[in-house]
Amino acid sequence: MLKSLGKAILDFVTELGHITLLCVNSIRKVRRTHNLSNRVVDQLLHLGIKSVPMTIVTSAFVGMAFTLQVTKEFIRFGAGEMIGGIVAMAMWRELAPLITGVVFSGRVGAAISAELGSMKVTEQIDALKTLSQSPIKFLVIPRIIACIIGLPLLVGLSDVVGFLSGFLIANAANINPYAYFGSAESMLTIHDIVGGLIKAVVFGFVIAVISCHKGLSAKGGAKGVGIVTTRAVVDSLIAVFVLNYFLSTLLY
Q1: How far apart are CA 252 and CA 230, in angstroms?
Q2: Residue ranges per domain, the chain?
Q3: What is the value of pTM for the model shown?
Q4: Alpha helix (H) residue ranges in the chain
Q5: What is the structure's pLDDT at 32?
Q6: How many CA atoms lie within 13 A of 123 on its CB side?
Protein backbone atom coordinates (compact mmCIF):
# COMPACT_ATOMS: atom_id res chain seq x y z
CA MET A 1 0.00 0.00 0.00
CA LEU A 2 2.81 2.41 0.90
CA LYS A 3 4.60 1.59 -2.33
CA SER A 4 1.47 2.33 -4.37
CA LEU A 5 0.88 5.55 -2.47
CA GLY A 6 4.47 6.66 -3.02
CA LYS A 7 4.26 5.88 -6.74
CA ALA A 8 1.02 7.86 -7.03
CA ILE A 9 2.59 10.87 -5.30
CA LEU A 10 5.69 10.72 -7.50
CA ASP A 11 3.55 10.45 -10.64
CA PHE A 12 1.50 13.46 -9.54
CA VAL A 13 4.59 15.57 -8.81
CA THR A 14 6.17 14.57 -12.12
CA GLU A 15 3.01 15.41 -14.04
CA LEU A 16 2.74 18.75 -12.25
CA GLY A 17 6.35 19.49 -13.14
CA HIS A 18 5.78 18.75 -16.82
CA ILE A 19 2.69 20.99 -16.89
CA THR A 20 4.62 23.78 -15.16
CA LEU A 21 7.44 23.52 -17.71
CA LEU A 22 4.89 23.74 -20.54
CA CYS A 23 3.42 26.88 -18.95
CA VAL A 24 6.86 28.48 -18.62
CA ASN A 25 7.88 27.60 -22.17
CA SER A 26 4.59 28.90 -23.56
CA ILE A 27 4.93 32.23 -21.73
CA ARG A 28 8.54 32.61 -22.89
CA LYS A 29 7.81 31.85 -26.53
CA VAL A 30 4.58 33.83 -26.89
CA ARG A 31 6.55 37.08 -27.10
CA ARG A 32 8.66 35.70 -29.95
CA THR A 33 5.75 34.26 -31.89
CA HIS A 34 4.49 36.26 -34.88
CA ASN A 35 1.42 35.98 -37.11
CA LEU A 36 -0.68 34.37 -34.40
CA SER A 37 -3.93 36.10 -35.28
CA ASN A 38 -5.19 33.68 -37.93
CA ARG A 39 -4.46 30.60 -35.83
CA VAL A 40 -6.02 32.16 -32.73
CA VAL A 41 -9.16 33.11 -34.66
CA ASP A 42 -9.44 29.57 -36.04
CA GLN A 43 -9.18 28.13 -32.54
CA LEU A 44 -11.69 30.65 -31.18
CA LEU A 45 -14.17 29.52 -33.81
CA HIS A 46 -13.48 25.85 -33.18
CA LEU A 47 -13.28 25.94 -29.39
CA GLY A 48 -15.32 28.99 -28.38
CA ILE A 49 -18.07 29.78 -30.87
CA LYS A 50 -19.12 26.15 -31.21
CA SER A 51 -19.48 25.96 -27.41
CA VAL A 52 -22.13 28.70 -27.36
CA PRO A 53 -25.24 26.46 -27.77
CA MET A 54 -24.14 24.14 -24.96
CA THR A 55 -23.33 27.11 -22.74
CA ILE A 56 -26.75 28.69 -23.32
CA VAL A 57 -28.65 25.48 -22.56
CA THR A 58 -26.73 24.63 -19.37
CA SER A 59 -26.75 28.17 -17.97
CA ALA A 60 -30.47 28.61 -18.71
CA PHE A 61 -31.53 25.48 -16.86
CA VAL A 62 -29.09 26.04 -14.00
CA GLY A 63 -30.47 29.57 -13.58
CA MET A 64 -34.05 28.32 -13.64
CA ALA A 65 -33.38 25.48 -11.21
CA PHE A 66 -31.54 27.74 -8.76
CA THR A 67 -34.22 30.43 -8.93
CA LEU A 68 -36.97 27.86 -8.43
CA GLN A 69 -35.43 26.68 -5.16
CA VAL A 70 -34.56 30.18 -3.93
CA THR A 71 -38.00 31.58 -4.77
CA LYS A 72 -39.85 28.99 -2.71
CA GLU A 73 -37.80 29.62 0.41
CA PHE A 74 -37.61 33.42 0.14
CA ILE A 75 -41.34 33.79 -0.43
CA ARG A 76 -41.99 31.63 2.62
CA PHE A 77 -39.90 34.02 4.74
CA GLY A 78 -41.32 37.15 3.11
CA ALA A 79 -38.13 38.17 1.32
CA GLY A 80 -39.28 37.81 -2.27
CA GLU A 81 -37.93 41.24 -3.24
CA MET A 82 -34.35 39.98 -2.71
CA ILE A 83 -34.53 37.10 -5.20
CA GLY A 84 -33.09 39.05 -8.13
CA GLY A 85 -30.03 40.10 -6.16
CA ILE A 86 -29.40 36.60 -4.86
CA VAL A 87 -29.69 35.08 -8.34
CA ALA A 88 -27.41 37.74 -9.81
CA MET A 89 -24.72 37.26 -7.16
CA ALA A 90 -24.88 33.48 -7.43
CA MET A 91 -24.64 33.52 -11.22
CA TRP A 92 -21.86 36.09 -11.53
CA ARG A 93 -19.79 34.86 -8.60
CA GLU A 94 -20.07 31.08 -8.72
CA LEU A 95 -22.58 29.33 -10.93
CA ALA A 96 -21.75 30.79 -14.35
CA PRO A 97 -17.93 30.51 -14.06
CA LEU A 98 -18.11 27.03 -12.55
CA ILE A 99 -20.74 25.52 -14.85
CA THR A 100 -19.20 27.07 -17.96
CA GLY A 101 -15.77 25.87 -16.85
CA VAL A 102 -17.12 22.34 -16.47
CA VAL A 103 -18.76 22.43 -19.92
CA PHE A 104 -15.60 23.91 -21.41
CA SER A 105 -13.46 21.21 -19.77
CA GLY A 106 -15.58 18.45 -21.25
CA ARG A 107 -15.86 19.76 -24.78
CA VAL A 108 -12.68 21.75 -25.30
CA GLY A 109 -10.41 19.60 -23.15
CA ALA A 110 -11.41 16.53 -25.12
CA ALA A 111 -11.07 18.33 -28.46
CA ILE A 112 -7.58 19.69 -27.78
CA SER A 113 -6.15 16.51 -26.27
CA ALA A 114 -7.64 14.26 -28.96
CA GLU A 115 -6.41 16.50 -31.80
CA LEU A 116 -2.87 16.89 -30.46
CA GLY A 117 -2.77 13.24 -29.39
CA SER A 118 -3.67 12.13 -32.91
CA MET A 119 -0.95 14.37 -34.31
CA LYS A 120 1.55 12.93 -31.85
CA VAL A 121 0.88 9.24 -32.54
CA THR A 122 0.85 9.82 -36.32
CA GLU A 123 4.25 11.58 -36.03
CA GLN A 124 2.98 14.94 -37.27
CA ILE A 125 4.58 16.58 -34.21
CA ASP A 126 7.93 15.06 -35.20
CA ALA A 127 7.41 16.37 -38.73
CA LEU A 128 6.98 19.89 -37.38
CA LYS A 129 10.23 19.59 -35.44
CA THR A 130 11.96 18.33 -38.59
CA LEU A 131 10.78 21.48 -40.38
CA SER A 132 12.26 23.60 -37.54
CA GLN A 133 8.78 24.52 -36.30
CA SER A 134 8.21 24.59 -32.56
CA PRO A 135 5.07 22.61 -31.58
CA ILE A 136 4.58 24.99 -28.68
CA LYS A 137 4.54 28.06 -30.95
CA PHE A 138 2.52 26.47 -33.71
CA LEU A 139 0.04 24.33 -31.74
CA VAL A 140 0.00 25.14 -28.03
CA ILE A 141 0.11 28.94 -27.81
CA PRO A 142 -2.82 29.61 -30.22
CA ARG A 143 -5.01 27.21 -28.22
CA ILE A 144 -4.04 28.76 -24.90
CA ILE A 145 -4.77 32.29 -26.13
CA ALA A 146 -8.07 31.17 -27.65
CA CYS A 147 -9.16 29.59 -24.36
CA ILE A 148 -8.11 32.64 -22.33
CA ILE A 149 -10.19 34.87 -24.62
CA GLY A 150 -13.07 32.51 -25.29
CA LEU A 151 -13.98 31.29 -21.82
CA PRO A 152 -14.56 34.77 -20.28
CA LEU A 153 -16.83 35.60 -23.22
CA LEU A 154 -18.77 32.39 -22.66
CA VAL A 155 -19.00 33.13 -18.93
CA GLY A 156 -20.37 36.61 -19.68
CA LEU A 157 -23.01 35.04 -21.92
CA SER A 158 -23.80 32.46 -19.25
CA ASP A 159 -24.22 35.22 -16.65
CA VAL A 160 -26.84 37.02 -18.72
CA VAL A 161 -28.69 33.89 -19.82
CA GLY A 162 -28.79 32.43 -16.30
CA PHE A 163 -30.03 35.70 -14.78
CA LEU A 164 -32.76 36.21 -17.40
CA SER A 165 -33.90 32.60 -17.18
CA GLY A 166 -34.16 33.09 -13.43
CA PHE A 167 -36.33 36.12 -14.12
CA LEU A 168 -38.79 33.92 -16.04
CA ILE A 169 -39.19 31.63 -13.04
CA ALA A 170 -39.48 34.54 -10.61
CA ASN A 171 -42.05 36.22 -12.82
CA ALA A 172 -44.07 33.00 -12.95
CA ALA A 173 -44.03 33.04 -9.12
CA ASN A 174 -45.55 36.58 -9.18
CA ILE A 175 -42.35 38.36 -8.14
CA ASN A 176 -42.46 42.01 -9.14
CA PRO A 177 -40.14 42.53 -12.17
CA TYR A 178 -39.03 45.91 -10.83
CA ALA A 179 -38.11 44.32 -7.50
CA TYR A 180 -36.20 41.55 -9.29
CA PHE A 181 -34.04 43.88 -11.36
CA GLY A 182 -33.83 46.53 -8.64
CA SER A 183 -32.44 44.12 -6.06
CA ALA A 184 -29.92 42.85 -8.60
CA GLU A 185 -28.79 46.40 -9.31
CA SER A 186 -28.39 47.21 -5.63
CA MET A 187 -26.73 43.96 -4.53
CA LEU A 188 -24.49 43.12 -7.50
CA THR A 189 -21.22 45.05 -7.62
CA ILE A 190 -18.52 45.45 -10.25
CA HIS A 191 -16.26 43.41 -7.99
CA ASP A 192 -18.60 40.42 -8.38
CA ILE A 193 -18.57 40.71 -12.17
CA VAL A 194 -14.79 41.14 -12.44
CA GLY A 195 -14.19 38.29 -10.00
CA GLY A 196 -16.19 35.89 -12.15
CA LEU A 197 -14.27 36.94 -15.27
CA ILE A 198 -10.95 36.48 -13.46
CA LYS A 199 -12.03 32.95 -12.63
CA ALA A 200 -12.85 32.37 -16.30
CA VAL A 201 -9.40 33.54 -17.43
CA VAL A 202 -7.67 31.23 -14.95
CA PHE A 203 -9.91 28.30 -15.85
CA GLY A 204 -9.32 28.82 -19.56
CA PHE A 205 -5.55 28.93 -19.13
CA VAL A 206 -5.43 25.83 -16.93
CA ILE A 207 -7.78 23.79 -19.13
CA ALA A 208 -5.78 24.64 -22.25
CA VAL A 209 -2.39 23.84 -20.67
CA ILE A 210 -3.54 20.53 -19.18
CA SER A 211 -5.22 19.44 -22.41
CA CYS A 212 -2.21 20.41 -24.56
CA HIS A 213 0.16 18.59 -22.23
CA LYS A 214 -1.95 15.44 -22.29
CA GLY A 215 -2.23 15.52 -26.06
CA LEU A 216 1.51 15.99 -26.57
CA SER A 217 2.26 13.09 -24.21
CA ALA A 218 0.09 10.58 -26.12
CA LYS A 219 1.62 7.31 -27.25
CA GLY A 220 0.48 3.86 -28.26
CA GLY A 221 -1.79 4.60 -31.21
CA ALA A 222 -5.55 5.10 -31.04
CA LYS A 223 -5.79 3.51 -27.60
CA GLY A 224 -3.26 6.00 -26.24
CA VAL A 225 -5.22 8.92 -27.69
CA GLY A 226 -8.34 7.71 -25.92
CA ILE A 227 -6.48 7.39 -22.63
CA VAL A 228 -4.99 10.90 -22.73
CA THR A 229 -8.33 12.39 -23.79
CA THR A 230 -10.05 10.86 -20.77
CA ARG A 231 -7.27 12.00 -18.46
CA ALA A 232 -7.36 15.51 -19.90
CA VAL A 233 -11.06 15.88 -19.20
CA VAL A 234 -10.84 14.39 -15.70
CA ASP A 235 -7.78 16.44 -14.70
CA SER A 236 -9.30 19.65 -16.11
CA LEU A 237 -12.52 19.10 -14.17
CA ILE A 238 -10.66 18.48 -10.93
CA ALA A 239 -8.49 21.56 -11.51
CA VAL A 240 -11.56 23.73 -12.14
CA PHE A 241 -13.26 22.67 -8.91
CA VAL A 242 -10.10 23.03 -6.82
CA LEU A 243 -9.19 26.42 -8.30
CA ASN A 244 -12.75 27.64 -7.89
CA TYR A 245 -12.55 27.20 -4.14
CA PHE A 246 -9.22 29.01 -3.76
CA LEU A 247 -10.19 31.81 -6.16
CA SER A 248 -13.46 32.33 -4.29
CA THR A 249 -11.50 32.57 -1.06
CA LEU A 250 -9.10 35.13 -2.53
CA LEU A 251 -11.61 37.21 -4.49
CA TYR A 252 -14.56 37.32 -2.10
Answers
A1: 33
A2: 2-251
A3: 0.88
A4: 2-30, 37-43, 52-76, 83-90, 96-104, 110-121, 124-130, 135, 141-172, 177-187, 190-216, 221-251
A5: 64
A6: 2
